[in-house]
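Summary for the steering committee. The consortium agreed at its last meeting that each partner would contribute one worked example illustrating the joint modelling workflow. Our contribution is presented below. We chose a case with several input lines so that the handling of multiple components could be demonstrated. No manual editing was applied between input and output; the record is shown as generated.
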Amino acid sequence: MSKAKNSQNCHELIIEGASCASCVGKIEEALKTIIGVESAQMNFALRTVSVTGNVGTEILIKKIQSLGYSAKSTSDATDEQLLDEKEVADQKYYRLLLKQMTIALALGIPLMIYSLLGGPMTVDTSLERGVWLFIGLLSAGIMFFSGKHFFVGAWKSFVNHNANMDTLIALGTGTAWLYSMVVVLFPFIIPEMARHVYFEASAMIIGLINLGLALEVKARGRTSEAIKRLIGLQAKTARVLRDNKEIDIPIEDVVFDDVLRIRPGEKVPVDGTVIQGHTSIDESMLTGEPMPVGKSTGDEIIAGTINKSGAILFKATRIGKDTALAQIINMVKKAQNSKPPIGRLADVISAYFVPVIMIISIISALAWLNFGPDPAIVFAVISATTVLIIACPCALGLATPMSVMVGIGKAAEAGVLIRNGEALQTTSKITSMILDKTGTITEGAPKVTDIIVTNADYSEDEILNIAANIEQSSEHPLAQAIVDSATEHNLSLEDVNHFEAISGRGIKADFKEQQLLFGNEKLMTENGISLDEYIETAQVLANDAKTPMYLAVDNKLSAIIAVSDPIKKDSISAIKRLQNNGIRVIMLTGDNRATAQAVAKQVGISEFVAEVLPEDKSNKVAELQSQGEIVGMTGDGINDAPALALANVGFAIGTGTDVAIESADITLMRGSLHGLADAIAVSKVTLRNIKQNLVGAFIYNAAGVPLAAGVLYPFFGLLLNPVIAGAAMALSSLTVVMNANRLRLFKPQNH
Amino acid sequence: MIFINILGLGLIAFIVWWFWIYKPTDAIELTEENKTIVVDSGIYQPTRIKVPSGQKTTLEFLRKDGSPCAATVIFPDFEISKELPLNNSLTIDLPPMEPGEYAFHCPMKMYSGILIVN
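What follows is the complete predicted structure of the assembly.
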């Protein structure tokens, strides 16, 4: 307790940017002005400051930042440290369980063999009494050493009006041991036929359950593989430029605005903006996007990705817990521990489970005592013990969380971030998927696709140059595409005169004494320009989801320039995957009908709504919901926020850095729509896995408990041995964990 | 035999009362100096915790139990779930809460506790 108190009252902070001794006094004084701070002392050599007082670390850091320095706490353990510690702790626990198991089985197995070979387990002579008394005390010692945690746990929960698995094991093994001891110590109060000891059961059960727990610890370690992999992406050191020198420092010591260098093959240590050089970066580990992405000055780079080709300098923009990677890890961890609604029934059941089993065990014992054959007391003890031991609340309790853990991790590996268990479950039930066109199905960046020169006096570049000259003054969204294209072709732009935008038609301007007209068919015909056979050419372009524009120089048609927002190359196959899953796919767009129709046709969508205002998108969601559909809505997460929020599941197409888009239930880190199909595939297989686990656990308990109580005895003379019950119980929870682990092998892209 | 039957039924009645009907009323109030919840041997100690409403609350969890069951604590009402390091305290910040009872538990609900906000 005192340790916890100290950690609260004593803060160690690392200060960055304090380069002169005069900073020391300034920082100390400033910290002392904070209410609650008792003392602040800076060590200039180490650049650390120790603060005592009842005050939050964040307040101290903010104060130091307000002075122009950067600071952070030394006590913030990194994810990796936590994970390592957890692994060490798990390993230790595993070895302890194995040791406890070995000792329990060392007594249990010989006794078991002895009884199976027909050795008398009864107490008749004084010698037998003496031997059994010795074995009884030995097994008490073993129960204390190997099973202490069950008994302590059972007692502590009992005092708190709570009952759990420990309660059942402690009661079961305790009953068997107590009865056996009564037989040994007071044989005369028990009928001669019933003087049978069950010390082997107590030892065996404790040994087997410890073995089951040990194997479970191992198997559970594998369920968090995905998060381990993500944490492993973090670099350990960073190369920072300070005082014109490059130094390698641990990434925890990197501060905001540091300039860092990375060379080819190195991991990006923190998020940042490239300030010098260009390179290509492999982001597949985060986004699932297999192609490396080119980066040059001004581009953002993300921690955890790998620099492929060039050496670059970049400035740290997000560090520590703020990096995209850290946020992803945080989100995945949180989601892995959240529970989908399907798990709630199991929760309700587990609240009543253990006391109900205790009651069943008493009823079973009473039934045997009242109606059972002789020796009734033996049957009563065996059935009561076996009922207590065979019942397994763990299998029920583990069923949902284990599968969610693996499923959400699996999705993260495919670049799909699922916010919580509820989103996971709803995703598996989606019947309709609404896709926004721009930026979702298409790239969201219009490009010049065709330049058809109709006047042989001009070259393609000349036409593009003229068009760009006019468009640079225009605010039309398509204009930017033409200007960009001209810049790509290294064409220099010049100003035009008498620029005039004609609404719904196009643009009119003068350039070097030439009269220019640039716009749609109406603009041309109204100015008496004959289009002749080129109307058909334009129609072909429009049918191809492109927007054709005519350029006339001195009232003579000179070119047709087509602009289009290209469809992402894998949209068609991804939409097909959705449709193959029986999902109704609907496209929404603000674009005109002809283009919308052409795009819809290209990607194989038969239902689309064109000319939709942004605020009408959520109406469409509501309309589908009123038809009884479970609606998924996919958009960019910014313009579509209301529709995403209203949909049963909102999917946001991320850009790699915006990992936690608030309005979305699921964030696709890769731009591809395959992420959608992956998300649905993973959620379906996870839900199926949960159902298998739950049904398995229900059936196991529903069949095992009556069997243990002896319902089959009147018909077949069959009564379960308590040791078998112990083995069955250990196996049942292990099976659940192993079944969940099967999900790790699932490949979403194949579904 | 009648005696045994009565004893058995009495035991059942006791189980029903002890685990379901009985509602504990005591709760530990956490203070600045003493806000550590120890996780050990199947329970959170203290189990019932009183905190004031309408202000931020910080709790410290100290896990002494090696069992993986004990490793995660979940506050479902606040969508908080934290991995508890072994033998090392971890601070959990809770948002200001409305008066009421909020459960916290391990993923399997073997460990469970109640926050009583008033």
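Confidence is low (pLDDT under 50) at residues 1-8 of chain A. The CA atoms of residues 33 and 97 of chain A lie 53 Å apart.
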